[in-house]
Structure formats: C-alpha cells, structure tokens
Protein 1
Amino acid sequence: MKNIINIIIRRVIVLLVLITVSCQDAIDIDQPGRLISDVTFQTINDLEAGLFGIYASYDTTVEIRFNAIFTDEGARGKDNGGQASDLFNHILNSASGTPNAIWVQHYITISNINKILAAAENIERVDDPETGIDETELYDSVLGQLYALRAYSHFTLQAYFSTDYTDDSALGVILLDFVAVLGETRSRSTNGEVFSFINEDLDRAEGLLPVGNSDPTFVSSDFITALRARMAAYRQQYTQADTYASDILSRYSIATRAQYFSMYQDTNNTEVIFKLEREPGDAYDGQGTGGGGTAGSLFAFTNSSPAGGPFIEIGRDVFNQLDPTDIRYDVNVHPNSLIDPDYQSSADYLNTDVLAINKYSGSGGVDLLNDLKIFRIAEMLLIRAEALAASGDFNGATNSTAALIKQLRDARFGSDQSLPVFNNQEEAFGAIIDERRLELIYEGHRWLDLKRLGARGNRTIRRAARDCEATGACSLSATDFRFTLPIPLSELNVNQDIRSQQNPGY
C-alpha cells in the first residue's frame, strides 16, 4: 500500500479537501457535496482514489489513548505536565474531547464513503479484453472495501455509544446510509436496526470481494469475518462468534516470539488480519498527543525511552502482571526503563520508577511511528475462549477456555505453560479479561473489554495505589455509567431529534 499511497498522495489530499466538509452534526452535510461528488468521481480510478482517501483518513489513536488512560493501562509519567488529567480522574461528560472526536471522526468517514458510493452508481464499467483491464473487478473491489469500512465505523460508534450491545431494543447510534441534505437530522436508531444494517453492509462487501487476504493493509474477506466475530462476541452471540473466529484461525498461525516482536516493528504480519499502515512522511508522521499523529506520541514527546519525555507510562498494576520471560514484556516495556523494587515506599516514585511504553517505539527510521493493528489472530483466539466459557467448556486440555489461553501463553513464553483450571464461569471470564489485558494492551480494547465483560468476570479498572494517590481514582466499577460514552455536546446543540436521547448518567 505504501507505493500506491505515495503515488497518489497529492490526489488523495485534494480529494479529501473536496469531499470532507465541516460537520455540525452527524448528518448535517453541505448539499453542494453531492455536486462535488458528481464532478470529482467520473471514472473507476477516481473511485479508487477516493477509497485510498478513506484509508488515509482512518485513525484509531483517539481510541487507543482513551482506552489506555481512562482505564489502568497507563499512568502519569515523569514528564507529565498535566496531560490527560481529566481521563486519569475519570471525568467524562458531553463536552469531553474523546466522545466528540470519536463521534465526528467516524461520521465524517461514513459521510465520505456515502458520497463515493452515490457517485459510483453513475460510473460505467468497461472491460477491455485486448488490454486485460477488468473494470468491473476493480469497481467491485472498491465498493466492497467501502461497504466493509462503513460497517466498521458504524460498529465502532455502537461500541462506544450504545449502553447494552445485547439488547436490540436499546438505543444505538444514528444510522447513516445516505448522502444527507443541508439541515437534515436524524434520531438514534435501535441496536437491532444498526446491527442489522452493519450485517447488510458486510453481506454486500462479501459478495464483492475475493476470498482471502493478500495484503493486511487492505480490507479483505478475512477483515469481514474478523469483524463479524468481534461483533458477535460483543453481542454475546457466542455460537456465531465461535464459528467466525474458528474460520479465521484455520487460515492463520499464532506468531512465534520472534515474529511477535517483529510484528510491532512492522516487519512481520503473521498474525495481522488488518492494520492501518503508517509510514515516514505521511499525514501521521508528527506529534499528536490527542490523536491524529504517531501512536507513540500519545505517550511520549520524542522517543519511547525514559529519556524521550514519557508523560504516560505503563500502569504499575499491569506491569506487575507482565512476566519478563513473556515476549509481551519486551514489546511493551522499554529495555531502559527504571524499575524500582521499592516503588511502593519511594519518596520520588515518578523518577525512580519509570516504566516507558515501548509498543510504539517507531519504524522506518521514525521514532514513535508504527502501524495500528485493528484485527489480529490473538484476538480471534480469545474470542473463541470467550465463547467456550459462555457454553461452560472452560476446563480441559482441548477445546476449552483453559486450552486456548494455554496455547497463547505457550507461544508468548516460548515454552510449555501450565494448563489453567477454573472453579466456575466467573473465573474463566476473569482469566480471559486478564489475558486480553496483556495481549491487547495499548491497542484500544481495555475500556471496551471491561464494559462488556467486567461484571461477568469480576474485573474492574485496577490501578496501583501509587498511580492514583494524587487523584483517588483507583478503580471504577464496570457497571458505572461512564462505560458508555455520552452523545457529544456538538451533536446535541444542533440536532433536536437527539436531545432527549442522551445516554444515562450525563
């Protein structure tokens, strides 16, 4: 994907300027956008450029930052000058930056996709047997990827703004499947309506894309299956979740220790189903502590070492769970970190115990710049473990929650690990949450995992006492209302249809 984006980068930037407008709410899109789409997208190559523009604008750093800091993945670092104090203090309301950023970003993406899809209806496909150019195949591929990305954005919005994924009658988000006219507003749809639409988009995409995954930086049929598996797990539709996850697992391998380490240096894709590629000189090659820059700059100023200005460090509680013989320790803990065995009594804790985050140390010669992993095989393995726990198959050496957790640990430690034994379902779910905490740390999952599984596994935000002594915000029940984001004030101010549909507690 790098070469392609480099070739068309100027065209993409122009395209995004043309089709991205200032949204006053989720669907308040300037009417001239229709005309712009008609003028901009005249050929299939134009549609492909539009697709690349969507890829170039996709970003998950806001979600990574929120999941890391609001929960217990991150802690105030030695060079913190007040950054993210609201998230450390669990302050969350309709005026907060995170809900607004997630809401606006995904609705702009959906709006732009809708414009490209609308323009595609008027583009003629021509297959030339003499040149071998198959425009229908390219057309189908572009549309398939767009439908899948629209489904992913709707699902992400659901994940953050719906109170209960398992209740189809609960409020979901605004379903946006059209090019809106100026001043048009919509109310929130039900979960059932939004999830049904997501599945319809995935069905459309599946019918247009070839089977397989030749490049993890592009949407593929495996992306679709992985999204179906994640969505089914979130909805506790575990028979489906198991089927989809098993299907994906049949075609990928769990990374060896060396492959796992290389994956986070962006030189190995053994476990990667889909990722957002980042490269030197692109729009994300720069400081972006609030999101939109390098992922590593969410946590440090110049590089990932203790001397690189770490203002967010590894939470002490999760650090204590990382075994130095586990490759996940090497990936996440900078080797020059200062580890104080007497941190609990240190009078200068912030300077004697410096646990620098290494996951986004950089690649391509650029500090802090790394690809963003969206779907990995390890997640699919843990979804299967979750499905087996739900069915009561949590113990046993084969086809059980315990067996799958052991399989993952064997790979990460590079040696045979003990088989877990659980006394009940709650313990099994708790172990899944704990393993996801280590495996998916700083990838944007922790808050979502506690929201949907915390009560079932008796887990909550768990900060070490030293990490929260300044705030007192050491824990937060998984049933707290702040495990659903508020509809942002920017939407409430301009959309009268949604004002009575704010989430509880806000």
Note: The longest strand covers residues 272-276.
Protein 2
Amino acid sequence: MVTIDERLAVIQPLHKFWYKGKVLGIDVLRLDLIHPIVSGNKWFKLRLNLANAVDDGFKTVLTFGGGYSNHLVATAYAAKKFNIPAVAIVRGKYDKLTPTLQSCVEYGMELIFVTQEEYKNNEQPDWIRQMAAHFDDIYIIPEGGANELGRTGAGLMDRFIDKNYTHIAIAVGSGTTLIGLRNKLKRQQYIIGFVPMKEGKYMEQSINKHLDKNKNTNWHLQDEWHFGGFGKWNKELITFMNEFYDLNKIPLDIVYTSKMMYGLNQLLLDNYFISTDKILCIHSGGLQGNISVQKDLIY
C-alpha cells in the first residue's frame, strides 16, 4: 500500500517583498512536500479511486493523459504500490518517450498511444472498451482523476485551508480540484483558477456541471498566462521561477504552478486585490515536470 504522510504538508508564507504590501499576506500550501512522486493534489484525486478499485476486486486501472502528464506518473506509481496493474491511453505519438512517460514505464504502467484525433473519444465507453479489450476487470480513472471520487478526494484538502483566507489560488488542469474545493469551502472564500492552456475559460461550462448550486459562486478562471499553450514556456517564465525560488525558497513546476504564480503576480501589479485580502496558493506538486528544463533552474 502506498504511504503518503499528509502531515508533511505545511503552510509557508511568501516573503513580504514579493507582494509589496498589496495584500495582507500570501501563503503557499506546500502539498508538493507530501510525496516526491504522488505529490500535491494528485494524491487526493487518486486515493479514493484506487482504494475503491482494490476493494471492489478490479484487476486493472486504466487512465488517460498526455506525454507530460503528472497524473499519469502519479497513477503509475500509486497503482504499483496498491498492487494493481495500470494502463494509460496516451495522447499523441512519440519517437522517443518523454521523461514523464519513461517514468511511467519504469513504474510498470503499460502505455497505449493514440492520435490526437482518436484521443477525443476518451469519454466514449464503446471506444474505451475497444482500446482495452484484452485487459481484465478494468477500473477507469478519467484524465486528471476527473470523476466523483476524484472530486470528493480533492475536497478533502479543505482541512488545510483556514477560514480567514479570502482568496484561494489554484492551477487548473481538469478542473477536478477546483470543483472539489468549491463544494467544500465556505461560500465567501473566492477561488481563482489559473488555466495553463490557451483559451482555457472554455472549462467553465464543464466545471459548472459538477458544482453544488448553493456553492456555485465566488470563483472564476484566468487563462491569460499560458505562455504559448499547455506545456509551453519561454525564458521569461524560467527567469520568474528562479527569482521566485531565490526569494521564497519554494520550487515551482514549469507546467502549472509557475504560471499560476506568474498570473497572481500580474494580478497584484494590476491592483486586483485590496489590502485586507489574504491569499492561499495551493502548490499542486508535479515537480517531476521540470526534468526538461532542469539545467536552466537554480533548484
């Protein structure tokens, strides 16, 4: 069984110089510290799904993701520890495995590659059955853990969040974490979701479907700071990550948390907040995604 010590998570204040008195304070919930691989929100989205798969006697876990998916490598590792084989349907064809996919293979995950067009069927039961016909007793975990158990698990992170925070900042991939937290937190606490892909506000409609009608307020998505699209970056973002670490001693990942903190910094500069606001940023882990840019980072 996988051992994840959630007590390792800490609340770390950012250096006051970083936010220059624009708000009362900014803290970071360091969920990246709970485990080096199944870190951040990944554990919370997977824990109930994998426990359910094992308890109900399923023999295989099947999930979905791209070549740089933190969800895939976390699922591969956790499934191995839960002693249940894992299979991933991977979006795109690769001449060479990405570091993320190589890690998945090392943890025993079997990979099935499909084209971008084929991948669009990943919510179609008939297509999934066809792709995984030779596997026994499949338990399906959607991309990003985006099912009811994933959302419920994500909601369990509310126990780390004090009621005195006025704003919660999170990076958004599938929307699962935002949904789980929005349904659990006090209504007056505002959630800002930073989407790291182009035109990411399209996700608002799908998120709305799963929100408690009594809690479907005080949240919105920001998609301006994608740096060219999902998984894209430039020298400016790398410089920002290094400067952020130098001041705060908190490592960010190139895919999600770096863009979240960059966007938050821009909102501070634009005087989006008022001086009495207190912000909690959720570090969703995924630092393994930095392998491709490690030589450019100071951490």
Note: The mean pLDDT is 95.
Protein 3
Amino acid sequence: MTDSYTRLVNAGLGKTLSKRLGLPRPAVLRRYRPGDPLTVGPVLVLSDAASKPEADAVAQALLRWEVDVRREPTDDARWGAVVLVLTEAARPTDVSDAVLAVGSVLRRVAPNGRVVTVSRALTDDDPPELAATRGGVEGFLRSLAKELRAGATGNGIVLTDGAAADSTSALATLRFFLSARSAFVDGQLLPVGPADAGADESGTATDRPLAGKVAVVTGAARGIGVDIAKTLARDGATVVCVDVPAAGEGLTRTANAVGGTALQLDVTADDAGTRILEHARSRHGGVDIVVHNAGILRDKLLANMKPQQWDAVIAVNLASQLRINAQLLEAGVEGLRIVSLASIAGIAGNRGQTNYGFSKAGVIGHTRATAPLVARLGGTANAVAPGFIETEMTRTIPTVTRELGRRASSLQQGGLPVDVAEAIVFLVSPAAAGVNGEVLRVCGQSWLGR
C-alpha cells in the first residue's frame, strides 16, 4: 500500500488541490501482475550509427516478446519505453544525435514508462576517448532518471567482457527494467557479463521462471521476508522458510501461505548452513537458491553503543551469511544462486547505525568476493540494497523523519517489500546467469549514495 500522502494527491479533491498549489505529487507506481503487458505502450529503440546492428538485435528480441517496436521517433505515439543502444560509440560526439533523439520524445513517455540505456563497461585498456564516452553514459543515465516524471524510471545495462546486447542475460535484464517488476529501481546501471551457461532465453518471457527450483529464505516470518517467499513461490519455486524458534507462529504462517516448509533455526548457529542443506535435501531433494534476508537493528550512536549491540548486529547481519555460504560451498552445491540483503546504509552510511552500516557494507564486500567462488560451481552471488521501504519497522520512525525518508528519492515515495522481492527473483532466475558479484539498489534513486 502506498503512503497516505501519495494516495491523497492522486485522487479526487486532493489531486485537484495539489495541482493548484504546486505540491509534489508522487505517482502511483505500476507493479507487476501476471498477464499484464510488458510495457505501457510501444517501445522506441534508438542508437548511434555504429551501434545500429546491436540495436537491431535488441529490437528483434522485443518483437519476439510481442512488443510494439518502433525505430524512429513519431509524434503520434505515447511511448511505453525508450531503449538507447550505445554499445559501439567510440567518441563523445558519436552519441549526440541519439541522445538528443531521446530528448525529443521525453514529453511523450507515458506514466510509468521506462528509459533503458545499453552500453559497455570501461576497461583498463580503453583509450581516453573511448573511456570518456563509456563513462559519460553513466552520468547521462543517472541525470536523465532524475528528470523523468509520473512514475517513469531510467536504468542502464552495462555489458562486460564482450557480452552481446542480445545475450540471454542482457535480454533478461532488459525485460526486468522494462517491466513493472522494477517499479522502485531507478537510476541504476547493472553490469551484465556473457556467462550464460545454462541460461535459457525462453525463461525471460515466462511467468514462472523458477519452476522446479528450491529456494531458502532466512528471516521469513515477517516483513520483507514474507514478500520474498511469496514472490519466489509465485514464480514457481518451492520455498524453505527459515527463522528463529521465537518467530515460529509467523514462520508457519508464511510457509503455509506459499506451500513450502518451515525450518526453525537461528542463523547464527555454528551449523546453520549444514542444517539448511540437510532440510532442503531431505524434504525437497536439494537447494538452488539462498536468500540471506535475516537481519536486525540495534541503533545507537557509537559513543553510546554497548558491545552486545555491536556484536549482535554483526553476528546476524554478516557473520551468519559468511558461515552459511562457506558451508554450502564446502558441500559443493552446484548452480547455487545467492542473494544477500544489503542496504543503502552500507553505501552512504547513516547516523546512529555504525554497526548496521558496517554489516551491510560487509555484505557488499563478501558478495563480490563470493561471486567467483560460486561461479566455479555454475552459480552466482549478488546483493540487493533497499532504500526506504514501507514496513512495520519504518512505520515506527517519527513522522517528520519518515516523511523525509519517503520523499528523498527521484520517485518521491517509499518502496514496498514486493519491490525488493521482485529484484531478488530477477537475480536468481536462470536467465540472469551473467549478473554476478553485483549490487542492485532498490531505492527509487535515493539521494543517498550513488
């Protein structure tokens, strides 16, 4: 549910008054429902001259998804999305015509529309002009995302290691960014590599890409964990719901709701990973996905912080993930998809949260280090960093602070737990095998951090 201010200014008298008074009017975001169209209108695919072949390949993929694709701007369209392919641009001047063509249609991008760039990552061997061009795309996309209105978002796919624009993982990422699944993802550039072994492009266009997979979710008894479990189950996974024995009632409720099983377990236990694996194997035949969602807060200024407040947060939020991952790797689990919950507090920091910031920055660090270890077994490790999300916890924040948190993003509102869940489901999908060691922010392009 959106916050009361957003509801007020989008209906009836509140909508009229907000327009007359010039008040901010956050859009009601379009969120995913099975069977809905991918976009809210036709998709315009643009490129610089050198990137035209890759733009053609992207357009062909969109046509396979039964999307209305156009290659030239027209005045009669209300654009559902604009895809700008700049993969082969070599000099800053190469992108000018394509970028200005995007500008010419921005006023006709529909509410909840999308702008997606496709470019290539910088490498150490790039000559200065090429490095300037590739680096410039990042600044362009992040700035453009802040200009979009009415729930429209801008995100970028950054191809690494020679990946093609129409590779399976690049197309899976494009589909995610175009869809309502990415409602609260804005101003983000996600690196995508060519590691598509075992990926199936048909999975980019199905409502149940996780059919036959077994997923473990820690902290599943309440909050974001419930939505993660429900979204994984919606997309076909069998879910093992994990939480502490004290949360047994909520844990059972979640497991019953998703048709999965409940495992009462403290993730800080020395053998937590082994017990998770034993449960998944004995009840479901194995494990394919692990989502590290369990986390706690013990906020206090560092000058006032007690050892137990610091130690508890590190034990639950960080050390438990390291231990579980190590035990799963030692067991040789193949094809494992791991997603860990980080936070923008681990990127930008937050007053009174030195322990939490350390733990969440640590999550980002271990995700990047774990990625190549899991890749040797055909898996991936990524992190999701939520911004302000509407949960029971954020509802306890003082009103003024809560309102500032909600409005401090390009989308001028908080996200919902399902927004975090949708990002996780994308990252664990078979088609996203080329995304590894990355951090995807789900923050509405929060003003904190990058």
Note: The mean pLDDT is 93.
